[in-house]
Amino acid sequence: MNIAEAERRTGLSRANIRFYEKEGLLTPTRGENGYRDYTEDNVQTLRKIMLLRRLRLSVPDIRAIESGEKALPEAAAGQLDVLQGDIRESEQAYAMCRAICEDRAEWNGLDVDRYQSIVLPADDPREKDRIPPAGCPWRRFFARNVDAGLYGLLWSMLSQWVFRINPDHFMSNLAWTLACGYVSWLLTFVFEPVLLHYWGTTPGKWIFGLSVRDEDGEKLSIRTAYARLWGVFGYGSCYALPFFEWYCNYKCYRACKEEELPWDLENGCSIIVREREVSWYRVALYLLVLVLRAAAGYGIDLYAKLPPNRGELTLAEYVENCNDCLKYNQGTAPYVRPDGSWNKDLDIMGGSYTGFSLGDSAVSDVTVETDADGYVQSVTVVSDSQNGSCGYQERMTVYYAFAAAYAKWSWLYAAHMRDDIIDDGWEYDAPDTKNVKEAHLDGLDFRYEYEFSGASRDNAVDGKPMPYHSVLTIEKE
């Protein structure tokens, strides 16, 4: 039978049963699934323990009786004196209550000396037969938050660097958010049991001075660590279901203050706390981890937007960079031809404007020149439009495919300079004026010329023609 059936048969709580197991008064077997299997003999042992504890016999005395080191009649005889003392205390308490009633004693003027020798009877000792809880619910919560964040960073690297999934496309997608949460849990199941088995703790628990040990004070076996984690996932997080997970977290917060949590009780584990009060340096370390985690997330996202080929580029590598950039940022099919020109015939979303210069009113021509060794020497983007469509997507793609790839150690600066170089700023207030931007970065020369003819804010609002012409040239020195 499982522990729930043992609870029902004996009337003891799970915490009581686990306490008696830890004290060595009974040893249930374990099934193939790793869970305890209680026999009829175990139930009868628990009932005997209950009886003797009601007689105020101590746990060490019961252990001695069970092992044969002490005879039960001898122990019972010794307990008679203890119980006689309890009877006297009860009689004194009874007499005190009766005297107070007869004297009609009041708080003001209560004669303490008259009653100070009266002692109340002791509490039921079985209430003390519990494994003391580790408590510290907030430390345990934040520790798991740290671990989940680290696993989330690992998933970000896999999804963005390996599978080329752009999270910006799913920012408001609930299904994607749930999927990421379950992937994080999957990674937790991969790493946490191994960490608990070999290290005895996890990064989050280590920060807050926590570790997990079995009932013998040893590190957990892999099987026990998995069983414990499954309890955390099921009972503690309600299988990561939205809203229900918060409710389970609240229940665990309340229970954590009174006794060990079910996944620890079930698997013979306990949280070991190095210090009862959180030291300031642990809080500082936790805050530092949060900052580093945010910085790492930003770096992962920024690095994912870089092209796959870096340094000197052949034409094929340049084209691969362009199409990778378009796929990651726009989710489109290959859009750049092998010769580096733009495939304007590709129908995207029925020809609607999606950041590309599509349709008869907007045309962008991209020209790629290579040197004698076959490496890309320069790229030129010429955009003409009658409706203000600026060819921004083409310029951004070319910039990342060529400039960000060629920029050596300053790729972060290259990403930062992008908008300064290729954004036209929509000069509504200065139409018919040619604007020129020039820059130099890591051996590349940038020149961007653009001009709006008759552009105005009213034209933009009313949809009137706004002729536009721009030329972007990126060239190696």
Secondary structure elements and pairings:
Layout lengths: L2 H8 L3 H9 L6 E2 L5 E2 L2 H15 L4 H9 L4 H32 L8 H4 L21 H26 L11 H25 L4 H5 L2 E5 L7 H15 L7 H13 L5 H5 L2 E5 L6 H25 L10 H16 L31 E9 L5 E10 L6 H15 L4 H12 L12 E7 L2 E9 L4 H6 L5 E9 L1
Antiparallel strand pairs: 1-2, 3-4, 5-6, 6-9, 7-8, 8-9
In DSSP terms (H or I, runs of 4 or more residues), the helix count works out at: 17
Helix fraction, binned, reads 40-55%
Question: What are the low-pLDDT stretches, counting only 5+ consecutive residues below 50?
Answer: 347-361
Specify Rg, calculated over alpha carbons: 37 Å
Largest sheet: 5 strands, antiparallel
Summarize model confidence as the mean pLDDT. 81
- Domain count: the total is 3
Main sheet strand line-up: 5-6-9-8-7
- The strand count comes to 9
Regarding quaternary structure, what we see is single chain
Termini separation (Å)? 80 Å
Coarse structural class:
alpha+beta
Portion in strands: 5-15%
List SSEs in N-to-C order: HHEEHHHHHHHEHHHEHHEEHHEEHE
Any idea what the shape is?
Answer: elongated
